[in-house]
Amino acid sequence: MDRTEESLRHRDTTPAPIALSAWNRLVQEDLLHVNPTAENLRRPVADVQLYDALDDQANVRNTVVLAMGVSCGSAGFERVLVHAADGEAAAVIVKARGTPIEDLRAASSRHDVPVLVVGDDADWTRLIAMARTAVAGAAVDSVSGVRLGDLFAFANAVASITNGAASIVDPSGRILGYSTVPGQPIDDLRRETTLTLQERTPPALDADFKVVYSSTAALFVQSPSGIADRLALAVRAGGELLGSIWIIDPGGERRQPALDALDRLAPLAGLHMLHARSASDFTERRNADLMRTLMDDPARASFAAAQLGLEFTDGFAIAAFALTHPNGGSLDAMREQHRLLQLVTVTCNVQFRSAYSALIDSVVYALLPCAGDSPRAAHRRVIRDIGSYATTISAHPVVSAVGGIAEQISELPRSRTEALRTLRYLMHQQSVTRENPTPQAPAAAVFEDYWTELNLLEIGKYITEKHLDKFDVIDAIRAYDATHHTDFLITLRAYFDSNANVSKAADRIHVHGNTIRYRITRLAEEFQIDFDNPTTRLWLWLRLVSTDLM
């Protein structure tokens, strides 16, 4: 047996007790310890159990007891605490359901049992799965030197054991980790999927994935011509499908040992994937909360920046990314939004060696560093690259925009506003382009590319909000055109766009110059427009331009 595999198996089958404080960190759920002391934080945790009110004889020594269905302050809660104290339990987890923390702290002290509070909306099934995963992780949060949840390191370990390049895939087809062991052969499919971090075909539509998912053992999967054969294993935890591991077939005498090794590693793979999913969910929620604080809450922005480890030496710019998906609230759209978040995170890591990104309200935000002599060139390059790569995650285009550079934390809300304004403008232009056979609108830009148009848009919004258009003639001309089937508004727009040059205006709308002169005369007479007054011309032009942009 391979030495790495032997170590992996030994560590997985003999989990050591872990201190309550370390276990709490590994669970990565929002658990509040109501009465932490140096002594109770060192309590060993060796198991996790659901409380059974009808089984007072259950052994709970060094066990975390989940008090499901018990309300704080009730007689049932007191029985749980007495049972936990008498049995030397490691801790009790309960939902507060409105009970003051002071009351919970008093109960914890009275029975000398650590009490941890979980949110009222927490899922007990998920919590017990993660709690047991943390126990299995043992005291060092690692298995044979591979940190729990580090799927890239785990893929390398699997590749070394099986002698084949390994990829770890979730049920939606995302590549969660892949091996980089030198000298192991790979094919074009492997190169493509590790570049895009996505399978070519969603597992739900792939016959090979369906066969693998239906098996409880590792399988040999024959591939089409030109693609290397694979060995594959469905990974589960507690009956839940977490994903699969795919190995490039080492062939010959190495195939069967590799299949056997995959079967032996199945429980360990489940442990890693379950922990990685929890860590990913926890990190995603945490990053979203901190990013939202940075952009929306100036009073707490410095704290959020410190939590993210930001150093404002050269400043940052907020980038915003969105899919032009027609059904933004659909399940498919939400999946693609999370793929976009992953793509943005990976690309920023490659470009800037750091990634601060979050999905908030269907928009992916990222903090782009501003180091170097030409930060805007780097910003343009990264959003252009993300737009190009996005074709691998969605059939719908990605629109990207970057706000101005924020040299201080307090300027980040302004950068976010600029990014969103630019993003919305580009998305509007995309929709206009789809409806009209005009040149393709740009899908990526920095704020200063369109600052004129964006400022005119703000002026237009101000005019509308303050009802400053109440007495002008633009709406009257539009209504007249609709009633009489005339083209006065189109003519007026062409006339102003051509700086009152009749010949150019005629060319713009493909009519004779005399037609322009006639219509301008009619406009002056019908709507009392003084075309000789520069202020009148400015106002009408401003109304037309701002309306067109909206």
TrEMBL record:
Keywords: DNA-binding. It comes from the Bacteria. Residues 300-425 form the CdaR GGDEF-like domain. InterPro entries: CdaR-like_regulators, CdaR_GGDEF, PucR_C-HTH_dom, PucR_C-HTH_sf. One of its GO terms (molecular function) is DNA binding. Pfam families: GGDEF_2, HTH_30. Residues 489-544 form the PucR C-terminal helix-turn-helix domain. PANTHER family: CARBOHYDRATE DIACID REGULATOR, CONSERVED PROTEIN. Belongs to the CdaR family. This is Putative DNA-binding protein. The lineage of its organism: Bacteria, Bacillati, Actinomycetota, Actinomycetes, Mycobacteriales.
